[in-house]
Amino acid sequence: PHCPTYATHHNETESPRGRIALMQALLRDNLPLNEQLTQHLDSCLNCRACEAACPSGVKYGELIDGVRARQWAQEEQPNRGKIKLLEITASRKKLRYSAKLIRLTQLSGTYKLFSKGIEHLTKAPPDINTLLPEPLPARKNWADQYPAINEERGHVALFTGCIADICDQQTLRDAITLLTHTGFRVTIPAQQACCGALHHHAGDTAHSQPLAEANIDAFADESIEQIIHCATGCGAHLMEYNQQLNTPQADKFSLKVNEISGFLLKNGINNLKFKTLKTSVSVHLPCTQRNVLKQATIPFELLKLIPELKIEPLAGNHLCCGAAGSYMLEQPKMAQQLRQAKLDSLQRSQHSILVSSNIGCAMYLAAGLRQQGQAIEVIHPISLLTRQLIH
Ligand code: SF4
Ligand code: SF4
């Protein structure tokens, strides 16, 4: 089966068909939004494997997002931890401040105590603290622009994301290196915000809509030819701002959104030279890359540019890794079960590098590896490529 929850439970109410029937009954007021119904809907990963496989083209993602917005509005006992997480990611200021505080406590050896206190105060799910690298890297500010190296062939803007900009600036720096080396001037609009995917998929329209509008404004400069992202989770949502907002500005924005690896492959990366790397990598395909961006072959094509690198798909790539936005925090049992299957496949492969094009999946898989004491590096394919670049 395509559906990870159906594959696990073999229960119709945990399948796409079952959930569609439940959602339709709910929307027609034939069923109340009771605990049992909520449970079946909440256990859906919104991985959209069912949508990609659906012969009738049912837009499952839109359907579940709509129902979740209704659930969010009707929630009598909202999850405080989740609300806090959505509030912090929606604000760059709060996110950067929190990251600074976390880094400080990590370096001073008081992080465990600090995170226990935060967990208690916000009722945040305990797993959130295992996700962060220790210590968090020190965040550096971006320049407004990075000029093309040699002759300029175009002007693009980079979407930095919220979590990536505090946990994984390296991938963003590598994107700038490859873009400028292929002849692109790169702008980093300072006013950009989190994409709002977490908020949108949770049904929190009060945050998701202003975030989408802020990004549309931040990237409105007519001279920007493409908006490049390095996380397929963010990109899948940026690409669908047009569906969310239904305005000419959103249409224009969504049309410009482009994933870094696919963009580089179409725009001259083949002219760069890369050093040989005699090792094997496993490629994890995030659901958003496979089911929404429909780019299942892209990371493989990109990595082929590294001479002698052996590239293999991670077994079980047709199923979600369990990260799925904030799912890993809200449904930890199911999420960990899905992740364990990936970690077991990785162990069997005996590869020392795992590449993933989505920050959420990469952080969740890396946390699992750390917990198991496995020294396998998890990086973005463009970082591996940049490491091998001959300048
Ligand atoms: S989105 Fe994923 S988990 Fe949800 S019903 Fe579809 S296949 Fe199953
Ligand atoms: S997809 Fe996730 S990481 Fe990317 S900007 Fe949106 S909320 Fe942040």
From TrEMBL:
Pfam families: CCG (PF02754), Fer4_8 (PF13183). Keywords: 4Fe-4S, Iron, Iron-sulfur, Metal-binding, Oxidoreductase, Repeat. Its EC number is 1.1.99.14. GO terms for molecular function: 4 iron, 4 sulfur cluster binding; glycolate dehydrogenase activity; metal ion binding. Residues 35-66 form the 4Fe-4S ferredoxin-type domain. SUPFAM superfamilies: alpha-helical ferredoxin. PROSITE patterns: 4FE4S_FER_1, 4FE4S_FER_2. InterPro entries: 4Fe4S_Fe-S-bd, 4Fe4S_Fe_S_CS, Cys_rich_dom, Glc_ox_4Fe-4S, Helical_ferredxn. This is Glycolate dehydrogenase, iron-sulfur subunit GlcF. It comes from hydrothermal vent metagenome.
